[in-house]
Amino acid sequence: MVLPHEPEFQQAYDELVSAIQDSTLFEEQPKYKKVIPVVSVPERIIQFRVVWENDKGEAQVNNGYRVQFNSALGPYKGGLRFHPSVNLSILKFLGFEQIFKNALTGLSMGGGKGGSDFNPKDKSDAEIRRFCVSFMRALARYIGQDTDVPAGDIGVGGREVGYLFGAYKQMQNNWSGVLTGKGINWGGSLIRPEATGYGTVYYVEKMIEKATKGKETFKGKKVTISGSGNVAQYAALKVNELGGIVVSLSDSKGSIISKKGITNEQVEAIAKAKLQFKSLEQIIKDEARIFDDSIEYIAGVRPWTKVGQVDVALPCATQNEVSGEEAKALVDAGCKFIAEGSNMGSTKEAIEVFESNRSNDVWYAPGKAANCGGVAVSGLEMAQNSQRVTWSNEEVDSKLKDIMYTCFENCYDTAVKYSTDKNSQGLPSLLKGANIAGFIKVADAMFDQGEVF
Ligand code: GLU
Fold first, then answer.
1. What residue ranges define each of the domains in the chain, with the CATH number in brackets?
2. Site annotated as Important for catalysis: where (predicted)?
């Protein structure tokens, strides 16, 4: 398949297909070949116009989308992204990833993704609210708790989910778990905001444990993190809790580097200011009391080549945020564990660098495995909504941990089972394990349901 007009989707498709082709799966069970052309076409794509009123009373127009990619395992499930870069290639790549990611959680969720090219960054709260209402006016008829359950992604957090939910409820005269990431006092799940970042760190805990045969943990490890949104914030807090040292965070304008380690107080200050879309550069200036001289700001770069020696890298910003060169710099700086909190955080070239260094004990986990904790707790939110119950922090956190640990074991065992290099000394490929394990689960359901035969 060649889709020059959809480069991001092509990249996600190529990653999955080449991971599978470079294993023994098709050789052992050729029937799975038939699934590829079917699973790579979305079941349905909805595209709509969103007209909304700005603060001057003028009409503004944006494109809205929902890609309902695959419903073999459950209702379509996946976030909404509001960002000027949003187009069908981006949403198809995200929806495609989501299918296999959701399968890896072990819960009953299909895959979907949606969003708009609306840029919330320079908008007032009232404009964001009016946009969300207009967006939901077009989307409401296509979603539902048993059909399609959106959530947040880049540019869509608790505030936006609240406005979207309020609009849905009013339009459909129906209070149901149609969105996840809701407020905890009105149907949301505890630990949902923390889930993606925490889950990524739980996954890496297992990588470290397995690779070092239980000898090492996060304690004392230097961890470079990119991004400063929800995923990066909670990943940083969990790393700190486990005794690691967070040496960086970043945003679209630049990076902050701290050799001493970014503190919880600093992460919390960033979290607060990011709600108002302030840049990191601005935040460290405004909060000089909290951000002392130990913090260095470097404009216009991602952290990877600037952090010096590190043990762990967690890309938690957006797609293609690690280039081949940057991957090489990380490996040269001693980085052994790379796990994506972002979706498709690494370029194809970066993945090649990480994968070819497995024999040097470098271990890479793709986003569809390492960041499945977010959507997993969305699945737990759906379960609580259906039962009209609320689980405690401890209960949700222990379920999340269990899902991430099981996901890791599943990726590991699948990689070993279908490996073409069974006698090599290197670590098994979690890239292959994740793609093959997710794919088999979805493919089997598609056979059973007569979607492929
Ligand atoms: N946007 C998140 C993801 O990429 C969460 C999706 C959800 O909770 O439905 O997995």
1. 41-181 (3.40.50.10860), 195-370 (3.40.50.720)
2. 153
